[in-house]
Specification:
By secondary structure, this protein is an alpha/beta fold. The protein is built from 10 helices and 19 strands. The strands form 2 sheets. Strands 2-1-5-7-9-11-13-15-17-19 form a 10-stranded mixed beta sheet, covered by helices on one side.
Length: 435
């Protein structure tokens, strides 16, 4: 039975398994919307270059087994050397405090499922939940219909969360293909600050499909950074939608570092709701074999005197396929907008491909907006220069590729994270050179 049929058939059983009844009607409405549209195909403009048929034609278990045997050694291998971090570990959808290190003070942290069941948070969910996530997309509607796993974090006014928080989503001990609908809600109130690192890991040979939706609310003079490390197995699929709404004088960053996973689709929407907002989006993609990674970004400049910066780098080998579609919308009242968008790509094999489409829609007349993309191979002159100084071809290629990707890491201010990304770059580039 294909995934579409399973979503309809399993929903009643799913609702019966939940206790948070106040969302039942919303879930049913979302499923109805999904049923009308179905999954996007290559006939849909937004999925023109991304075929998800491989994902949607598989059968999945909607109720993952909770039992696991994750060891401390396995977790240690996933860590970034972050002894001074907090970390939150979800295994098979469930929060495991015994595997986590949570010292968050002066802030509200709950698992998403627990928050839904807590009457004290009903008003918060009424105010924020699903208010900026698109209600017209198949995967966001499917997520609303089935969301259960994930976390809720509210950082109160002027509270600085000093330690970065690494959130692990692990799947293990699943005999069947498994379907997770992860939901995160982050609220950063006026003057507050927080940094999140998110990673997904499948320990089984069976396939995992994660349909994730994250809503971020950054208030006046607040700062929220969200770093995604996507280095999962070849038996993992990920469709991620992240929506970030910013108020005046705020700063929000979403960095996406993609190295592993069979098919990954990242959708990122920034919504400006005040002046002097800064939005940063950076991405590094290094893939091979027959992997597919698709980045779709959109920045909605609705107010004057705001800035957005997008810088995505891609390195593709074998028969891998990359997609980048970046959009910047500038409202007619959004004067003095400064928007930068760049996508640069290197193809290392004849079978590797990239479809890139940066877009600007500008309705204001006093703005500074630029966009561009490049697709090519390594610079032969630079390669010759390095080899003429005694550097081997393999090392010269790796150095040039490292330098090519490096500027997309410049705004990482978490040193262990920066070191980890540099290590992953070095590892992937070493593999990349073996052709």
């Amino acid at each position: 039975m294909a995934l579409y049929d399973q979503t309809i058939e399993n929903h009643s059983e799913f609702l019966e398994s939940l206790r948070h009844r106040f969302l039942d009607d919303d879930r049913k409405t979302a499923l109805q919307k999904f049923a009308i549209k179905g999954f996007p195909t290559k006939k849909d403009e937004e999925y023109k270059y991304t075929n998800i048929k491989e994902i949607t034609e598989k059968d999945y278990n909607f109720f993952p087994k909770e039992s696991h045997n994750i060891t401390k050694e396995q977790l240690d291998e996933l860590h970034l050397g972050e002894e001074n971090f907090d970390w939150i570990v979800f295994v098979n959808g469930q929060l495991h405090k015994e595997l986590s290190n949570i010292s968050i003070e002066n802030a509200e942290f709950l698992s998403f499922n627990y928050a839904l069941n807590d009457e004290n948070h009903k008003d918060v969910f009424d105010k924020y939940f699903n208010t900026i996530a698109s209600k017209d997309l198949a995967f966001t509607n499917l997520n609303q219909a089935y969301c259960k796993y994930g976390f809720f974090l509210k950082v109160p006014k002027n509270v600085i969360i000093e330690k970065p928080i690494h959130v692990f989503y692990l799947s293990q001990n699943q005999e069947e293909n498994t379907f997770y609908n992860t939901r995160n809600l982050l609220i950063v109130e006026e003057g507050a600050k927080v940094e999140i690192i998110e990673s997904h890991h499948n320990f089984d040979e069976s396939f995992v499909f994660t349909n994730s939706v994250t809503e971020i609310f950054t208030y006046q003079n607040a700062k929220a950074d969200w770093h995604k490390i996507q280095n999962d197995s070849d038996t993992s699929y990920l469709v991620d939608h992240t929506f970030a709404k910013q108020e005046r004088d705020s700063l929000t960053t979403v960095n996406t570092f993609t190295f592993g996973g069979k098919i990954i689709r990242n959708n990122l929407d920034f919504i400006h709701n005040g002046e002097n907002i800064n939005s940063f989006m950076n991405g590094i993609t290094i893939i091979g074999k027959d992997q597919l990674v698709d980045h779709h970004t959109a920045v909605h400049h609705n107010t004057p005197n705001c800035q957005s910066y997008q810088n995505y780098k891609g390195i593709f080998k074998d028969k891998s396929h990359g997609v980048f579609n970046g959009k910047v919308f500038v409202n007619k009242i959004a004067q003095k907008t400064n928007a930068y968008q760049q996508n640069n790509n290197v193809l290392l094999s004849e079978g590797a491909t990239i479809d890139t489409k940066p877009q600007l829609e500008i309705f204001a007349d006093d703005v500074k907006c630029s966009h561009g993309c490049t697709v090519g191979q390594l610079n032969k002159d630079a390669l010759f220069y390095l080899r003429a100084r005694g550097i081997s071809k393999k090392e010269a290629q790796a150095l040039l590729l490292y330098a090519f990707a490096n500027d997309a890491m410049q705004n990482i201010d978490i040193e262990p994270l920066k070191v980890k990304i540099e290590q992953l770059l070095a590892e992937k580039l070493e593999v990349t050179m073996e052709f």
